[in-house]
Design goal:
Among the domains are: 142 residues, Rossmann fold, CATH 3.40.50; 89 residues, no CATH class. It contains 20 helices and nine strands. The strands form three sheets. Strands 4-1-7-8-9 form a five-stranded parallel sheet, sandwiched between helices. Helices cover 62% and strands 7% of the residues. The protein is an alpha/beta fold.
Length: 446
């Protein structure tokens, strides 16, 4: 998927402050679209999002969410300058301004903002197209090399939380209709069909504000609606679908449905385009972990070893990216346990991850994965009593069906590897069964 470039430009013919008519469709098609495509970006025009001069909330969100933007200021009203002010404060490095020379006095001095001028013919069409296309392409290429800015929609971009917690805290922080929040909360309890009914009620997903769409997306995840997540991502407005959170969670859903090549491709493209966080690396590690298991079942030992090594590598990269995030750290240690002989690096990793989890729990905001990590770490360290003590907190912190299933699966992998080496693993069986029973009881509720 090419990065999106949002183009904020009027529709059709408009008159500038000097009384001259401008053909904005010609400007868009002959000047902007070719330049944007030459810069390796995909143009997205705002025309379907506007009624008259009013910018609606969904369009406003997409204007902020798009990585790049081109804004024509020639006939811009106060509302456009308001939206531009928000975007420019957050993404000035990837926002290119253009205007018509001789189009009258602009509401503010754009010279300090490096606005790009263009000239028009007598009938309001762009002239000297070759040179202005090169100039716009150059500005966009400069923006691609720049570093800086942060998304207004911090929860789906650069919010300074541990990566994997973004999705967990989203519902509390996102601000939208309280009534819809409550309906989605009830629907999650009732199961997949109830959530699908809400999606039908919402209508065209591309026209719905981002908070609602993301809550629905993550609600499908809560009830293992992997196919519904995949389908919903395809119906999202392109700027929202292109955000890091959505791409990561889409990859997670694709992997759960066995579409590992697609999931892997999404994450590798994210890594190419940005400094990846622990969540990107962690989900990629999970893909290779699943491929390792599949290869083992088929007796493809060489491939299984390669996938296991790759899983460990990406989990470690995830832990190095943010050592507050126990998820990739614990998974790296678990995968090391599966190696033959076990990777000695796990002996240093287990206490380091344990300490990080304990600090997070002491912070007063622990979640399911914190307690589950302590349980898994205790099993890895062969601390039977610590594992039993952690189990109670795990079982009482479950939010989504797939959580205890994932933990039980990890513990089963550890158990099987140790059993093959002749270790005593009987004590872990009851812990695994407790987790399975918890998942089954939640399944029954739906």
């Amino acid at each position: 998927m090419k990065p999106l470039c949002f183009v904020l430009i009027p529709l059709g013919n408009k008159t500038d402050l000097s009384g001259k008519t401008i053909d904005f469709d010609a400007l868009y098609n002959d000047f902007m679209v070719p330049a944007i495509k030459d810069a390796g970006l995909k143009p997205l025009r705002a025309d379907e999002e506007m009624t008259g001069d009013i910018i609606h909330k969904p369009m406003s969100e997409r204007f902020i969410l798009c990585e790049y933007a081109v804004v024509d200021l020639t006939t811009a009203g106060a509302n456009v300058f308001y939206e531009l002010g928000i975007r420019h404060a957050l993404r000035n490095w990837s926002t290119v301004l253009v205007y018509s020379e001789g189009g009258g006095r602009l509401p503010f001095d754009v010279s300090s903002l490096r606005a790009l001028p263009y000239k028009l013919t007598g009938d309001g069409k762009p002239t000297d197209i070759a040179s202005i296309k090169v100039a716009l392409r150059s500005r966009l290429n400069e923006a691609k090399e720049a570093k800086g800015g942060s998304s207004l929609y911090q929860l789906v971009e650069d919010f300074p939380d541990i990566d994997h917690t973004k999705t967990d805290v989203f519902r509390d922080r996102a601000k939208y209709s309280q009534q819809l929040k409550e309906r989605l909360a009830e629907a999650r309890k009732d199961g997949l069909d109830a959530l699908k009914a809400i999606e039908v009620y919402l209508g065209t997903i591309g026209n719905i504000e981002s908070g609602v769409v993301l809550d629905l997306f993550l609600s499908y995840r809560a009830v293992k609606g992997w196919r519904e997540m995949i389908d919903l991502a395809g119906r999202m407005a392109p700027p929202l679908a292109a955000t890091v959170m959505v791409r990561e969670q889409l990859a997670l859903a694709l992997n759960r449905k066995g579409e590992r090549d697609k999931a892997e491709s999404i994450l590798l493209r994210l890594i190419e385009r940005r400094d990846p966080g622990s969540e990107t690396y962690g989900i990629l590690g999970r893909i290779y972990k699943d491929r390792h298991e599949e290869a083992m079942k088929k007796g493809e030992n060489s491939a299984a070893k390669a996938f296991l090594d790759r899983a460990i590598d990406f989990y470690l990269k995830g832990y190095d990216a943010d050592m507050r995030d126990a998820y990739p750290g614990i998974n790296a240690a678990t995968m090391m346990e599966l190696q033959e002989p076990p990777d000695p690096r796990r002996e240093a990793l287990i206490p380091a991850v344990t300490y990080a989890v304990q600090l997070k729990i002491k912070s007063g905001k622990p979640d399911y994965w914190d307690y589950a990590s302590l349980l898994e770490l205790a099993v890895l360290a062969n601390h039977k009593q610590s594992a039993i003590d952690a189990l109670g907190n795990v079982l009482t912190s479950v939010r989504e069906i797939w959580e205890p299933e994932t933990t039980a699966r990890n513990l089963r992998l550890i158990q099987e590897a140790r059993k093959a080496r002749g270790d005593d693993v009987d004590w872990t069986s009851e812990i695994i069964e407790e987790l399975k029973r918890k998942a089954e009881s939640m399944e029954d509720l739906h």
